[in-house]
Amino acid sequence: MKKIFGDKEFIWKLAAIALPLALQSVVNLMVNLIDTIMVGKLGDIALSSVNICSQFPYLYMTVFMGIANAALVICSQAWGNNRPDKVKTMMAACLKLAALINAVFFLLAFLFPSGITAIYTDNAGIIETGGVYLKILSFTLLFQSFSQIIVTLLRSVGVTRLGFVTSLFSCIANVFFNWMFIFGNLGAPAMGVSGAAVGTVIARILEFVMAAGYLLIDGRLSFRLPDLFLKMEKDMHSDFIKLGTPGVISEVTGNLNVSAAAMITGRVSEYYIAANTIVHNIWTISSLFMFGIAMGSSVIIGHEIGAGRRERAQEYADHLIYLAGLIGLLAAVLIQIIAPLITSFFDVSAQAKETAFILKNAASICVFFLSMQFTICKGILRGGGQAAAFTKVDLITCWLVNIPVGFVTALVLHANPFWIYLSLRIDYLIKTIWGLWKVKKTDWIIRLNVE
After folding, report:
1. What is the pLDDT of residues 34-80, one digit of tens each?
2. How distant, in Å, are the alpha carbons of 314, 365, 395, 397 from that of 250?
3. Residue 437 neighbours by CB distance under 10 Å
4. Can you say whether the dihedral through the CA atoms of 283, 358, 56, 130 is positive or negative?
5. pTM of the predicted model, to two decimals?
6. Domain ranges of the chain
7. How far, CA to CA in Å, does 100 sit from each of 67, 97, 378, 389?
8. Chain-centre distance for alpha carbon 134
């Protein structure tokens, strides 16, 4: 560990990317926590409805996470090889692709909100309330992906604070408009759960305006509207397909894993759903730095590979693995410390709070392996061009392990919530073991066509 913190160049590179992402996560966390507490004031059904309905927008965002993260690997290697023109071309391609996908998801959510909600639960009250919420929320699907793509790809060229600034602004707006429309403040109608959706729509539109405005005025890429018509070269297009296809499959598989878990736990009890919502907020607090470290890993590894420094990339990978383990241990301890405080903020039933107490112990175990597999697989190996290999492991653990084991544990054995929670996240352990083997025992570095 002394060797890691003694490598000042590595620490500065990682901090430049990871710290703004961590701060962005803090902002999102606080706002999500406040939003959840606001909706929780409306009761178990309202809280469960919002939690269940978040699954479809999350599926939408995972598609773009796959696209953006694949493009980020290419852009990072291109920037490391002093080819900003390739970064600009990739930005244009991703934004055009996003416009098409946005339209599809919006129409599905707007036209069939109750049908989508019914996929995740058979509770009539949640389906009715969630359907109304999702129909309004569908308008966010016309804007949100553009912001994510812009913020993500600009990280490859050193723009690391934009995500924090846009998130801070949009999240403050989200809290304000939720407070305004949920409870009917400042003369607005008291819309309840629908008000939470309205507040989120307004916030996402503002976030898009800020991100798009920055892209057009930033001097690193000098991106302008006519650049949207740039076309990728054949080799670059091939790399994008090779990384993007498994990247999207991996992210969607992860979402299907979460969605399948929601379908399973949505049939356990409404108390479990509410408890899981509470524990998710506790889990998010504990894992603030994990996303930043993983994203930073991908960019740093990509820069080193693009510049032709393979040995340095391997050395940095070793540093990152040790950091991931340390952060995972700290996160597990933090869950135990903050769980009673966070749970006390929610006005839910005694049964839901009791279940949340049980789930937080399982979450402490899972969060360590989350940190490890996230940094190794979605950071180091993705930055090294190993998206296809990781996707195979994702598919296997999702369809052959998590879903069947979780189904049997929850709905056949009717096990204790502790074991249900663990069984639905057993893939974290499997992917950690596989990722360590891949980095330590194989030649995992692939240099893309960024000349």
Report:
1. 766 777 777 777 777 777 777 788 778 888 888 888 888 888 888 88
2. 24, 23, 7, 11
3. 11
4. negative
5. 0.73
6. 2-441
7. 13, 5, 26, 28
8. 19
